[in-house]
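Annotated sample (chain length 102).
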Amino acid sequence: MVGGMNAITVVWVYTALIVVGGLMGFLKAKSKVSLIMSAACAVPLVLVALGKLPVLAAQAVAGFLMVLFTVRYASTKKIMPSGVMAVVSIITLGLLLWLSPR
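Output written by the structure step:
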């Protein structure tokens, strides 16, 4: 644990960012896909945070979103939201790998 931070805290923060991002995509661009995908990604993250799924599931979601947002950023070159979420996903995956029990 680093300064009171643990994998569950990281998962909760990441879940909040994913849900807020999906809501922003829906409210600003009327993107139902953003809303649906954020909810679909949030479900396993919440289950990890509640101890119903192993941290490996959160690592898989973060890895999937890292690839998705990195590819999207590479094609659009737009910092928001793809670039920011790619970086957030990379950091989250790194923290989850570092903080998870070995």
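Annotation: Residues 7-29 form the longest helix (23 residues).
Annotation: Helices lie at 7-29, 32-49, 55-76, 79-99.
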